[in-house]
Structure formats: structure tokens, C-alpha cells
Amino acid sequence: MTPALLARSADRDEDYARLGLQRRQIEPWEDGMRTSGGPGSYEWWYFDAHLADGSSLVVTFYTKWMLKPKAPLAPMVQIDLDRPGKPSQQLFVTAKPGEFSASTERCDVRVKDCYIRGDLHTYQVRVVAEGLTLDAELVGEVPSWRQGTGVTYFGVHDEHTFAWLPSVPQGTVTATIAEQGRAPETLSGIGYHDHNWGDVAMSKLLNHWYWGRAQAGPYSVIAAYLYADKAYGRAELPQILIAKGGQIVADEASKVRLVLEDVFVDAHSQKPVANRVIYEYTQDDQVHYRVIFQRAQTLLDQKFADTVTGVKHALAVIARVDGAYLRFSGTVTVEKYVAGAKVETASDPGIWELMYLGHVE
To answer: Which listed site, 2, 203, 227, 287, has its alpha carbon 20 to 30 Å from 323?
Structure first.
């Protein structure tokens, strides 16, 4: 009989030793390039910002498309810009391997004239795309963090890896946006940066996940809930960080329970979407936190099959490629309870996502 496959967060002493990491101590090289960039790997560096005028910005630097780890190096930058009263913009900068570089000592990634670089505290992001030039600086307010080693292993013998490092869980952002035909604007806001990598297509490991980050009053939150593919026992993999005033107050995954409320089937993607995503965190027999993501708007609703055209689209439909990515905005609320009584509540705008890599089960 074939043994059941497993998925687990790598948080044992031997995992830290194997990966050359320290508990509760993150070093700049961890945000450097962690893969070869060649076949059998993927990697990306992500930055987002919620700006004072209501604009939201997401910039992602890829070594290649995350669902094609067997492919050779194919550098790309994806830019998603949403501004009040304007249509959403999604831009891509693609490059040849010779137009890409990345340091292994720190975050210093270049794709053509675009770059992201920093030292776990201060980062600069520059994007030069068709009709858009962006310069942003992110200064961390919450220290770099990871859930355990940041690595999730899949398989009986830890055969495959998916890794996540929130290098800047929350920080202040200053961004200058120059759009074609318009005078440059400089805006401030809050931002976030993380780094992901792995060795096999995520669609082979994970079915779907919710992920979000936000500021709510004095609280900073990163919350994720990943569901492994059925081949890996449909394991549930929670990840959470709650900080207050720049100090981490809660981050033990084993204390998280996810509650989805007011669920509907999205008309475009045909995926179940929760209007309210709630992370219940029981710290001890006295203290309990609730983090509530209340959807107000869907910013992006993208079916993977629709990202290709012609014959490739037809083949994707035939192959039942029905993965989808949805990004939402709304209100994020943090509630703190002591002995059953609510003692604190804070709310602010936030951004979160639903990634569906597999079929709805």
C-alpha cells in the first residue's frame, strides 16, 4: 500500500539546521535569490502598497511564471495599478535572461530597467513600463518574520518545497507615479514586501488559499490559510502574524482557526468566494483575537485559461485548466477579547486574495 503523502511546516530543530537558519533571526541573504532560476524552480519578489488617495499598487518580480517551474529562466515584472475613478491597469515587462540579475546576498533584483532592492528594512522599487514610471520606497515598521523556517515541505520524504518570507510585514511607503500625459504624483501610504520560491508547480501541491495583509489601527496583520492538494491529504496550513505597535503579539499557526461566511459562487471564475474571511486566534484561556476581512470590491478576477489565446486557450479549456486568481479590497478589523469580553477593536482598508490552483472540491 502506498503511504499517505504529507504536507508540513518545517519548524523542527533539524529543519533549521538543514536550511542554515536561526529561530527568530532573519538575515539579509534570506531575501536574496534562493533558486538557480533554471528548470525545476520558480521564485518571485512581491511588493504592494495602499496609498492615501485610495490607490492600490502591486508589483511582482518573477524569475519565470510560477506555474512553469520546468521552463528556463524567463524574467518578468507584473504591475497592477488601481486608482480611484479609473480603469484598473495591468502591465507586464518581459526580459531576456541577459536582462535579469539577482544577488544571493540580499534582495537586489533587476529586470531590464526595473528593480527591487533592500536590506530587510528599507527597499527601493522602480518600474519602467509602457506609459508608466514608478519609484517607491518602503521603510519597515514591523520586523522581518517567517512562520518557522518559512518553508513548507510536501511528500513523505519532504520531496518538494514551497517557501514564503515576509521581509517587510508592514512599512511606510512613498511612491511617485508618472503616467503618460499626466504630471508625476507623489503619494504616501502603507506597504508590504515578501519573497516566495519553490521547486515544482504550486498547482501540484496546493489546491487553493486565502492570503491577506493589512493595517488596522495600531495592529499589523498577515494572515494566510493554505489547502494542500488531495494528493497531500488536503492538509490545512495556516500562517499568521499579528503585531501591535511594531511588536509581534501573536504568530503561532497551531492556534488559528479559519471561518468563511457569506460564501457565494463568483460568476466569472466560478470559484466560491467568502465575503467575510475570519481568522480566530486563541492565544490562551484568557486572550483571543479575531481578524475579519470584509469584502467591499473585487479588484481582479482572472481565470488562468484566459491569460493565453488561440490554440493555447483551446488546449487549456480541453485540459480543464480552471485555476483562478482573485484580489479583493475592503475593511480589515482586528478584535481583541480578554476573558470573553471585547477590549479592543480597530479597522482600516486592506487588500487580500484568493488563489485557486486546483478544481473546487
So the answer is: 2
Decide which of 200, 235, 259 is a domain's last residue: 200
Residue 275 region by backbone torsions, left for phi larger than 0, else alpha for psi between -120 and 50, else beta? alpha
Compute CA 43 distance to the chain's CA centroid, rounded to the nearest angstrom: 12
Taking the model in full, what pTM does it have?
A: 0.87
DSSP 6: -
Residues 345 and 249 in one domain: yes
**Residue 59 burial (C-beta neighbours within 10 Å; 0-12, 13-18, 19+):** buried
DSSP state of 11: -
For each successive 10 residues of the chain (361 residues), what is the average pLDDT?
A: 70 96 96 96 95 93 91 96 90 97 98 98 97 96 95 94 96 95 92 96 93 93 95 93 95 96 95 97 97 95 68 35 87 97 95 91 79
